[in-house]
Specification:
about 120 residues, mainly alpha
Length: about 120
């Protein structure tokens, strides 16, 4: 398990073809398998790492090069990102809703009062 996490970290930093043995896929930040929240620095898999809400490793692609590409494209033409922003907003709402559900579940099972 630790090697899979290290491999994912190296892929994120150096790309999947870092050893020269894999066929390099040309990716774009708009690809469906790219983590949109990572592009903003808000991936919940990284935010909640080593907490009670740890979600494990993100199944989507995290690549620093795509993050830079996204930031440059957004700076050049911010109006093009309306639908992209909508998708990100929906994803953030889902993350917040999941966290709220966990809070309700924990507080309903807890017999101790906060006050």
């Amino acid at each position: 398990m630790a090697t899979a996490e290290m491999r994912k970290m190296l892929d994120s930093l150096m790309g999947p073809n870092r050893n020269g043995d894999a066929t390099e896929e040309k990716r774009s930040y708009t690809d469906p398998d790219v983590c949109k929240l990572f592009l903003l620095g808000l991936c919940p898999h990284e935010l909640f790492n080593n907490t009670k809400n740890d979600l494990g490793t993100c199944p989507l692609v995290h690549h620093e090069g795509l993050k830079v590409e996204y930031e440059e494209a957004r700076a050049r033409n911010p109006r093009e990102f309306a639908s992209f922003d909508f998708d990100i907003e929906r994803e953030l709402e889902r993350v917040v809703s999941d966290c709220d559900k966990r809070i309700v579940k924990v507080s309903s099972t807890s017999s101790h009062s906060i006050y």
